[in-house]
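Reply to thread "Modeling small-molecule complexes from scratch"

Following up on the discussion above, here's a worked example others can learn from. I took a protein sequence and the SMILES for magnesium ion and predicted the complex. Inputs first:
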Amino acid sequence: MPNIFLIGPMGAGKSTIGRLLAQTLKRPFIDSDHEIERRCGADIPWIFDIEGEIGFRDRESAIIDELTQRQGVVLATGGGAILRPENRHHLHQRGLVILLDVTVRQQLERTRRDQSRPLLQTENPRARLEGLRKERNPLYRKTAHLILQTDRRPPRQVMLDLRQRIQQHLNQTTATIVTAHGAS
Ligand SMILES: Nc1ncnc2c1ncn2[C@@H]1O[C@H](COP(=O)(O)OP(=O)(O)OP(=O)(O)O)[C@@H](O)[C@H]1O
Ligand SMILES: O=C(O)C1=C[C@@H](O)[C@@H](O)[C@H](O)C1
Ligand SMILES: [Mg+2]
């Protein structure tokens, strides 16, 4: 089984679904946001405060480069992990990249009680999420091998669907390789 990398907007469920998927596949689960916090000894709002978004993005790029070199892991990335070209390249080349997508409406619902996302600590989170979506959607889409909508379904359902889509994708890829090599 290749590495599974989850990308997508804040509140799409990358951390939640990633953990469930790793459990059922019996793979190690890593969350790049948590790993940055653990190593830094500070939470993300604090890192944004002290080092600015650029400081956080530098830490994020270093951790993505490192974690994508592991084997057989499920990795949940942060919502902005696709912003830098080198991150997109590492993700796309070193694993199967799944975009968990979500509507802005659901994002608002899922993130409104949580103050851990500095980019949403604004007067108008809806406008911020819409702006981010416009800017990032093309980047998510060109980095992903598979796309899955996560609205209106509970996490376990999304995870089961995702597991099936991954299996289908891998079966198709294997079939193509076997055909290309002319195996009987
Ligand atoms: N399919 C779902 N249905 C309902 N709630 C969900 C679903 N997926 C995730 N959630 C809830 O939404 C919130 C955000 O989910 P999560 O932290 O997994 O998002 P994320 O994609 O990792 O966001 P971030 O990019 O900020 O790390 C959590 O409270 C989680 O329980
Ligand atoms: O969408 C983003 O830019 C972010 C999403 C979170 O996962 C964190 O990585 C951080 O809050 C920034
Ligand atoms: Mg997360």
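What I'd highlight from this example: The domain at 4-179 is CATH 3.40.50.300 (Rossmann fold). The pocket of SKM (ligand 2) is lined by residues 10, 33, 44, 78-80, 117-119 (CB under 6 Å). Questions welcome below.
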